[in-house]
Structure formats: C-alpha cells, structure tokens
Amino acid sequence: MNDNLHRDDDRAVAEQGGAPDTTIPIVVYVLHLAGMVTGGLTSLVAVVIAYVYRGNGPAWLDEHYRYQIRTFWLALLYFGISGLLTLVLIGFLTWLAAVVWLVIRCVKGLKTLNERRAPDNVDTWWV
C-alpha cells in the first residue's frame, strides 16, 4: 500500500510539472564527504538529517535517504575496523580503501540524484 502512495506522489509531481527539491539530499552527501575531514562529525549530522527526511518524498528520493543512512552505518563499520587494524599496521591501507569507498559511494549517489532516479544497488555493502 505504501508503494501505491509513492506512485501517486510521483504522478502528482509529474502532472504539476515540478520536481522535488533535491537540496537536502545533496547537503547530506556533502556532509558525508566532509566527515572525512571532521572525523565523522558531519556524517553524524548527515545521518540525522536523512532519518528525518526519509519517507517525505517520492520513492526515488526516499531511496537516496536509505542509501545515505546505509552509507553512514557501513562507513562507521569500515572506519572502525580500520582503526582497530592500525594496531597491526594494515589499518592504514584499509582506512585508505574506506576513504575511496566513501568518495565513490557519494559521487555515485550525487550522479543518480542529478538524474532524478534512485541509486543502484542500495542494499550493497560495496559501492
């Protein structure tokens, strides 16, 4: 039933000729990227925003919020594991891999957001 509501919302937007505002999802992606410089503080803000706005837009936009929320939790896991592995020196390599993963994931999300469609493979643990 919830999917029917989203389809009706999508049709209503298409009939009105407007598109949903994508400013908030863009800000969330940028906050995730800034989290690499702020030690994750802005990523924490980003996930709170994503949780607040999730469910308030068309289905494709809600998928972006879900993707951003998953990005936060997976990044927390990957960077946490990297932090532990720095004790055996391999953590520096896994930290670099986590940074590359985060950048690719955010750029991929921004690209699909610009195309006004949901990100591919939202449930993946990779990119």
Q: Summarize model confidence as the mean pLDDT.
A: 89
Q: How many extended strands?
A: 0
How many helical stretches?
5
Number of separate structural domains: 1
User: What Rg is obtained from the alpha carbons, in whole angstroms?
Assistant: 16 Å
Describe the global form.
elongated
Biggest β-sheet description: none
Quote the beta fraction. under 5%
What fraction, in percent, of the residue positions are helical?
over 70%
State the low-pLDDT regions, or none.
4-16
The helix/strand order is HHHHH
Q: In angstroms, what separates the terminal alpha carbons?
A: 30 Å
Structural class: mainly alpha
Compact overview of the structure:
The protein has helices spanning 2-16, 23-38, 41-53, 59-85, 91-114. With 127 residues, the protein is an all-alpha fold. The radius of gyration is 16 Å and the shape is elongated.
